[in-house]
Amino acid sequence: MTTLTIGFLLIGLLIVMVLIGMQIAYALFSIAFLGIWLIRDSIGLAFRMLELTAYSGIADYLFATIPLFVLMGLIVSVSNVGRDTFEVAEELLHRMLCGLGVATVAANTIFAAVTGVSIASAAVFTRVAVPEMTRHGYRPAFSAGTVAGSSVLGMLIPPSLLLIIYGVLAEVSIGGMFVAGIIPGILLALGFVVMLMLITLLFPNFVFSDAEAARSRRLQRDGERMPLRVMMAKLVPIVLLVILVLGGLYSGYFTPTEAGGVGAFGALVVALVKRRLNRHRLWEVMKQTGTISVSILLLLIAASFYSRMLSIAGLPNAIADLVQSGGFSPMGFLFLYAVIILLMGMILDSTSILLIMVPIAAPIAQSLGIDLMQFGIVTVIAVEIGLLTPPFGISVFTVHNTLDDASVPVEKIFAATLPFIAVMLVVLILVATVPAVATALL
């Protein structure tokens, strides 16, 4: 049996192990260890490479970015910033077609700029936006679908944990990935807004349980104005935090790691000023930060070990040769790769997909002349779509479980996210065919 055959069989075994429920980190460690042992016929070498990977895999200063941004996102989540952002967006946008839906997208866009995690957005806005939208005559399933669909912005608009993980796996600049995500993130948010307005105009019964009653409530809402002083008090903290972190990062004043530290400190100040952080909550935030960060860093060590096994097996080069001999152009490979990611998104979580696919695909993309920044944005958008597609659809299930309403079955929420998936596919095709969408600001 050749080295390449062993490598391909091990990748198949890895997918099977993940599908039957084995944690992705343990599956990666097991497959990588077994692969090095079989290919080099030396268990001692496998242990030695595991030791070296465990030491060097996360020794770089850059990896401090992960716990710092996680800490910032968690502190922001407990500070009621999400609720404040939605209330201001509601006040400013409620007169528009599908005003509360647009407000949800706008609030998610701003919230994503300081959290970087879709699941956090989904949980926060399910509690905030869905009851308010339902009270104003929107269908509960549509309201929940709007929250789930717009929550994926947290994975693309920087700072994003998926962009950080991709940057580490593909060995590209994390700051560069953040910059590359700006235009696609804005396009995605604007696409969601246009889509919501068109659906409301063309299919009002899909949006409202009673369109006439909803219109009456909107007119009644005009008389309930939020004082400008209150609006500014709610909006200023998050705007300052976004300017502090992203402004310092994009201007080159902060490195990504420094931006994470400054952001975490800024979020702590906001939470203390708003009196939302006592000793108990601070302890819970620190514990969650540790749990999430250690999990991610363990995954990155496992992915590094897995990448070394792939290199020893020669798989990336072999697959690149197959792609080139098969007549695939760079664009053809990019679309084939996106389809594979979309299919994997139906059965695997986003981090697992990145850990399995990026070490294989990134070297191939580079050999075909595809910009790895553009490739990363294509990857993240395709992975994001998996957050909304059954049967896995973790954002949809997060909204469903947080909502805990028997009258809103999960299949109706999946149906309500279909227009969001359509917009994401359009943006995915745009980024794949026009590299400047991702690279113009670099």
TrEMBL record:
Part of the tripartite ATP-independent periplasmic (TRAP) transport system. Pfam families: DctM (PF06808). Coiled coil: none annotated. The keyword Membrane applies. It comes from the Bacteria. The chain crosses the membrane at residues 6-39, 60-82, 102-130, 142-168, 174-207, 228-247, 253-273, 294-315, 335-360, 372-393, 413-441. The complex comprises the extracytoplasmic solute receptor protein and the two transmembrane proteins. It is a multi-pass membrane protein. Residues 11-436 form the TRAP C4-dicarboxylate transport system permease DctM subunit domain. GO terms for molecular function: transmembrane transporter activity. Belongs to the TRAP transporter large permease family. The keyword Cell membrane applies. InterPro entries: DctM, TRAP_DctM. One of its GO terms (cellular component) is plasma membrane. It is found in: Cell inner membrane. It comes from Salinihabitans flavidus. Its main location: membrane. Keywords: Cell inner membrane, Cell membrane, Membrane, Transmembrane, Transmembrane helix, Transport. This is TRAP transporter large permease protein.
